[in-house]
Design brief:
The chain is of the alpha/beta class and 331 residues long. It contains 11 helices and 13 strands. The strands form 4 sheets. It has a 5-stranded mixed sheet, sandwiched between helices. A 4-stranded mixed sheet has the order 8-13-12-11, sandwiched between helices. The protein has a two-stranded antiparallel sheet with strand order 2-3.
Length: 331
């Protein structure tokens, strides 16, 4: 009997209509287009402006796009995982609501939170369910409404993040395609450098925490950048060595879209040509859990059956890692 692997068989995506450009940000904080572009590579990002809508709205639309494109009956889905750092609310799972809204009434569902590495960790988790043989169709969605936790008077964070969602369907494969290897890491000493201080069990919400803006993302940019540059490159190099891959063997690098300098440093360590690196950071900024699936969504037409993809991400916590996957279809 052939070994079962977990392959991505469909991709969907969604970004809001409203475009927050660098020119608009110039009217909000002391910055300019040249400064933002040279340091991050970002030109614009999408923002969900609809009143009363949260991350689930993005996730639902990305999932519906996938289902419609592939003409998939949502009742066939066994499991829905929403990878997110910005759930609709505490306690009530965003994934559960998303599954119900898309008609996946036979699926169980839950959220997965590992900051910017959430989708990468979710890919590992979804693969384990498929390889176990218990489930045939797992819908993994990376979605974040980062605008809900950003202080638009803080130029160190408001220039970076945007809103969006991407979705993939994972199914069993016996051709040797799909996820081949993973190298996932974490280090809790990093949580002081990228966090939201209030709203959790340590510091519950209060008038004081609101006045102090403790419900917004705060980061030590230099420390986070330093860790991200070294660690994203390290795990990609490690996974190539473990699988005896040369730069010629790698078809595409699928890197987290946090900063163009981090992406370029990772590609350089892998000795990859620029035309093998998927990038859309200039259009969306850092959509956190959505960056990796949105890359697949934007570049799906370029991906060919058998292509070797190396995924890489780095997130708060700290969390980071790399996944080696063989693409399973020609779009």
């Amino acid at each position: 009997m052939s070994k079962i692997s977990a392959a991505i068989t469909a991709v969907g995506g969604y970004v809001p209509d409203y475009v927050l450009s660098n020119k608009v940000l110039e009217t909000l904080v002391d910055t300019n287009d040249e400064w933002i572009t040279s340091r991050t590579g970002i030109k614009e990002r999408r923002i969900l402006k609809l009143e009363g809508e949260g991350t689930s709205y993005l996730a639902i639309n990305a999932a519906k796009d996938l289902l419609k494109k592939q003409n998939i009956n949502p009742k066939e889905i066994d499991l829905v995982i929403v990878a997110t750092a910005t759930p609709d609310m505490l306690v009530a799972s965003t994934a559960v609501y998303t599954a119900t809204e898309i008609g996946a009434t036979n699926a169980f569902a839950y959220d997965l939170q590992a900051a910017c590495s959430s989708f990468l960790y979710g890919l590992s988790t979804a693969t384990s369910y498929i390889e176990s043989g218990r489930y045939k169709k797992v819908l993994l969605i990376g979605a974040d409404k980062m605008s809900s936790i950003i202080d638009y008077t803080d130029r160190s964070t408001c220039i970076i993040f945007g809103d969006g969602a991407g979705a993939v369907l994972l199914e069993p494969n016996t051709e040797g395609l799909g996820l081949q290897d993973e190298y996932l890491r974490s280090d809790g000493s990093g949580r002081e450098f990228l966090k939201i201080e209030a709203g959790g069990s340590i510091t519950p919400p209060s008038q004081e925490t609101i006045d102090n803006k403790q419900h917004f993302v705060h980061q030590d940019g230099r420390t986070v950048f330093k860790f991200a540059v070294s660690n994203m490159a390290d795990v990609c190099e490690k996974i190539m060595q473990r699988n005896n891959l040369t730069n010629d063997d790698v078809s595409w690098l699928v890197p987290h879209q946090a900063n163009m300098r981090i992406i370029d440093a990772t590609a350089k360590r892998m000795n990859l040509e620029d035309d093998k690196v998927l990038k859309n950071i200039h259009r969306y900024g850092n959509t956190t859990s959505a960056t990796l699936p949105l890359l697949l969504y934007d570049f799906e037409s370029k991906l060919k059956k058998g292509d070797n993809l190396i995924f890489a991400a780095f997130g708060g916590g700290f969390t980071w890692g790399s996944i080696y996957l063989k693409w399973a279809y020609n779009s």
